[in-house]
Structure formats: structure tokens, C-alpha cells
Amino acid sequence: MTLRGKHLDIAASSAVNGRAPAAKAATIRDVAERAKVSVASVSRVLNGSDAITETTRQRVLDAVAHLHYVPHVGARSLSTSRTDTIGVILPDLYGEFFSELIRGMDLAARAHGKHLIVSSSHGDTEETMAALRSMRGRVDGMIVLSPHVRAANLAADVAGRTPVLVMNGGLDEGGRPAIAVDNHGGAVAAVEHLIATGRRRIAHIRGAAGNLEADIRAEGYASALVGQDPIIVEGDFTQAAGHRAATQLMALDQRPDAVFAANDMMALGALLAFQEAGVRCPEDVAVVGFDDVPLAALVRPTLTTLRVNIAEMGRRGVERLIGLVQAGANAEADTACEIVRPALVVRQSTAAAATAGSNPDQTAASLS
Amino acid sequence: MTLRGKHLDIAASSAVNGRAPAAKAATIRDVAERAKVSVASVSRVLNGSDAITETTRQRVLDAVAHLHYVPHVGARSLSTSRTDTIGVILPDLYGEFFSELIRGMDLAARAHGKHLIVSSSHGDTEETMAALRSMRGRVDGMIVLSPHVRAANLAADVAGRTPVLVMNGGLDEGGRPAIAVDNHGGAVAAVEHLIATGRRRIAHIRGAAGNLEADIRAEGYASALVGQDPIIVEGDFTQAAGHRAATQLMALDQRPDAVFAANDMMALGALLAFQEAGVRCPEDVAVVGFDDVPLAALVRPTLTTLRVNIAEMGRRGVERLIGLVQAGANAEADTACEIVRPALVVRQSTAAAATAGSNPDQTAASLS
DNA sequence: CTGTTAGCGCCTTCAT
DNA sequence: ATGAAGGCGCTAACAG
């Protein structure tokens, strides 16, 4: 007890001596002392809760100003068990898709006064778990993007009581809150568009094996083909993979006259490979991507793709998660898997040879 | 109330029945109880500190496993006053520059077992301050990227005892730890390259007014000109601005035969504008960007630019900050402003008309 | 080696 | 309207 008293004295003296930004940061107790009120009152003023005399309110605010006091969020969250922070676990931080996603999430988070703590798992299930664990108690809820179903589900378990929103493209999340892109529908739309514009040998550059979204898109592609066998080349969602795959395709006996790449970056890689080889797009070969990253409208020829509105999806994810957090125990109520329907955006890369060069950016109706 | 009680019952029962992930998370005390030891021992085992009997260690680990116990990081950091988290405040989250930067930072952070909490301030000084304040107690240190000097310096003040690393391109940070790009040197190199390849009327598309980096680059541009007056058009670092600016330039009586854009995105915008207008690059006009975002090597013509190695810079920033945090009170020792020298990367967009089409990606020696 | 206990900084009943 | 006091979950002396 006596010891404690001493401590306070020291803190007080150093606090009193000037508006020093260094030294030990002021605590709520310092403020209380300086304002001659109890910590409770300070707390009240700062949280705008109960009714407080205008006099004390001013006294407190003055003290706060003089001391450069800023409440310690960590301590606060320990007693309120809220952190006002949401965690995001991504498989990777590379490429325009994820940066757009984070941008959208940040926007929504800021709008709701939440913080965003991001972490990438490099696609590794073990790392995903580690990230999840280390986030416990640090966040009010998390959004997990894992290309592997297992990982996503495990994630939801490890999280314990913390709400988890899964965004990994699988439509069946076992009744967990989720947001997913209609990968199947998108792939089908891509192929149908190619067929409609007269293409007859349509190849597919797929994403990494084992990646859920890659699987579904490939499956959608195959199911939409008419009168031809699937021609599938492996890829991994990177521009380099698209380049390699396109090279392989050009070496085939019967060259395809159209390519549907599982994402835009690979489509771009393919576009470049074709260009370098003197294969003209869209005249000799049409190309369709997926995602509609900003870049897609910037390259020449501009890229036909499936618009996902990535930032919007990120925004939506954060808002939904915030809802889950607020719902608390009732969260069981929300187990819906929200589906995002990509919209086909027709650009130059799939113009029928005859009409090549027409309007570079005409958006078709949404799939839904 | 009754309704709520019912809900809770349900939750509870579901928790009891099996290794339920729900229910209230176990605390260190629960573990201690179940393992028949004191909380101190549990803490010891978990932190691998002191020596512990193998017996108790096992007992603790068992209990931890059975209870799905995960230490509460928030509480821990309250007593250790460490958060193992570093905060990053960016002016914006849009564009490839920042996504690359975050990627590099994430890599370094993960390597050191730190978390990353990001926040954008939309270039607004007030928002930057708010972000800083709200990070207190939540991070061990922060990295601030603010295009405005004032903001950056203010930031360092508001932060109080928390180490702050400034990365806003200003070389003079008043003795604060900082990392900056040699914007002046880069701009000069760009102009000199253009002159060396025979260009005589060199224009500049500058970044937003009031933006420190934009100012320095513009100044560097002007200082390197030989035998011509500066031709400067306003921009704001976006691709659209570059497009507009290029359009303005084409309308001039005496068209420039070269353009140095303050960043790659604007250079790309200009490239497109020229293309649409039928002005050939590099034959009619050469274009140089700044940053070397991944995209620069993907467009056609490939873009000559100043490589900054963004991800590496992000990595470096995090490592330096971690150093500052560890140094603690001795932090005053490190007040150096580390300078990153961009390297000129010559690509197709500045090929002299005669040699146009040569090697698309030859890197020149670094400036340093 | 292990248990006890006092805080870390804040919020929040419970009295007054 | 305000003050006093008991935690939140964990770590770190300080005894045994």
C-alpha cells in the first residue's frame, strides 16, 4: 500500500512538470488527480456516458489536454473485451486483387471506426492457423480468405468464440457466414460469350491445383463447352504462369482460337506471350480473364473479363463481419453464404474478328 | 431478458457437450486449476522462461490442450507493455505502389513475429493524427508515410514515447529516424537520360501540389534541363491525371518530344493518351515514369522508369522500426535519414527513334 | 522449483 | 452527479 502511494507520487510529479511528450505516458489516474476528480468521472467524460456536470467535464478535458492524455486502448479492451479491430487473413499479398480488396476493407473499417490488422498466410494451412491463434484477443472478429476449404473451416474452429467470415470462394461453407464469388456462373458466362462470338476451340488456363476457386472455375469451363473436349493447362494465378501456359497452347497441333484464363493476371501473361509470338488478339485468338482488376482496362487490347467489384466485396465483408460481432451470441442466426455474381465485361480482347476495334468497354448485363 | 437467458443457456449447453469452441474462452487460471498448479507456473511454461519440472510442464500442456487455451494477447501486452504489433499509416491504399510496400512490410513483420496494423489517412493531416492517437497502446512503434512534412513531424510528436519512422520522401526530417527516396537525384537522372537520347523539349507531369515528393521531383526536373524552359503540367499521381496532362501537352503549339511523369501510373495514363491520339511512343515522344511498379514492365511499350524496389523499402522500414523499438530509450541514437537511390531502368518507351525496339529491359547502373 | 500477490490502465457496478 | 473498489487476463517480482 505504502509502496503504491509512492509510485503515484513519482508519476504525478513527472506529469506535472510540463507537457513533456516523452516520459511515461499519462494514465487515467494522472488525469483524475490533476482534475481533482475520480477516475470514474474521467472515464465517464471520455466515454460520453452518463450525465456529468459541465464543470467537471471541463476540468477533465483541460487535464486531458494539458497531459496529452490518450486512453490506452489495450487496457480498455481488456475490460470491455472489445478491441474495435478486425483481423484479415489473406493467402498472399501479391497482385492487384488483394490490394483492391484491402482497399475496400479499409474504407469500410474506417467508416465504422474499426482498425484493420492484416496478415498473409502464404497459402499455407499451418501458417493460417498460427495467424488465427495470434489474433485471438487482439480482434473482435476475422475475415479469412483461404483457397483451401479445410483451412477455412479449421479457421472457424480455432477462432473459438470470435466471429469468422469466410471468403474463399466455396459455396458450401457448412453453414458458416460467408461471401463467395459465383465462380461457376462466371466461368460459364465466359465460355458462352466466346462461343457466341464464334469461337470453336476454347482452352482454359486454370489456377493452382487444390485451390478451390481454381477448381470451380475449371469445372464451370468444362461444363459450358459445346461440341469440343476441354483443353486445360495448369497455372497458378500469376502473370508468368499465364505466359508459360499460352506458350504451351501455341505449340499444340490444333491451336485454340480462344483462351479463358482463371484470372486477369494470367490472361495478361497470355496476352503478352501471344503478342511476342506474333499471334494477334482478338483476330487469331480471343482472351477472357476473371476479376476485372484495374489493369484489365489499361492494357491493349483491353481485356474482356468477369467483373467482381473487388473493393466492394471487401467493403461488404467488413460490414457483414461487424454485424456478426454486434450480433454476438445471436450470431448463429447469420449463417448465410452471400453470393457475388460477376458481370461479364466485354472489351477488345474478344471482339469477333469482323468487329474488332469497336467500343473498348461495353459492359454486359450482370449474370444475376 | 428471458429471451437473452434462453440464448445463453443454449450456448452454454452446446459448450459443455464436447470440445466446444464456443463458450467463454479459457483463462490462465482455468488452466492452472485443471493442471493443479499456480498461474505463475502456467505462465512460465508458456513463455519458456525459468526451469520447470518436466512433470508440471506436461500437466500444464495437457490442460492447455484440453481447454483449447490460447493466451490473451491483449492482457499480456498490458503487463509487458509490448504488443508485438507495428502500425503503418499510409496516405492512401490505392495503386500498386502501396500494395507493393505493404507486401514488403508484411514479409519483414512476419519474419520477426510482428503483426501489422494498417490504416490510411487519405492524405488528410487531421485523419493522420486521429489514426496515430487511436494506435497508442496498440502498437510498439509506427511507420508514417505522409506526403506533407508537417504531418509527419506532428506525427512524431503526437506519438509521444512510441518510436516513429518517417517515410515521406523528405530528406530533412529534423533529425528523426527516416527513410527517403532520393527524389531529386531520380528526377535528374530521368531528364539526363532523355537528353542523352536526343530529346530536346522535355515536359514534366508533376504530382499533386503540396505533396513533398511531387515538389522535389519537379524541382529536380527543372534543375536538370539544359537549354529549355520547364514545361510543367499539374497531376495528382493517378493514371487519369496522366491521361489529362498528356492531352494538354499534345495541344501545345510546340509539342514536347519527351515527358517525365512524376510516377508510373501517370506515365501509363500518358502512354494511353498518346496511343489514342496516334502519337507514337517512343518515336514521336519518349516517356519516363518513377517507381517501377510491376506494371511498368507489362505495358507496351514497356516503360522506362526509376526503380525504387518498393517492397524492399517496406521491408527495410519494418526492420529499422523494430530496431528502434528494441533500442528503447537509446532510440535517440538512431536519427539517421536513410536514403534510397532509385536506379534508372531503360525500357522501350525512351528508345531513341533509331534504335527503337531493342532490348526491352536493360537496367542501367544505380545512381549511387 | 513453485506459489502468492501486486499491479498494467481502464471500465463499471454499487454506494453515497 | 460522483467516488470507491473490484475485476479483465497476464506477467513478474518476491517469498517459500
TrEMBL record, chains A, B:
Put simply, this protein is called: Catabolite control protein A
Q: Which SUPFAM superfamilies match?
A: lambda repressor-like DNA-binding domains, Periplasmic binding protein-like I
Tell me the superkingdom of the source.
Answer: Bacteria
Q: Which key words tag this protein in UniProt?
A: DNA-binding, Repressor, Transcription, Transcription regulation
The segment(s) forming the HTH lacI-type domain are 26-80
Q: GO MF annotations for this entry?
A: DNA-binding transcription factor activity; transcription cis-regulatory region binding
Any Pfam family matching the protein? Peripla_BP_3
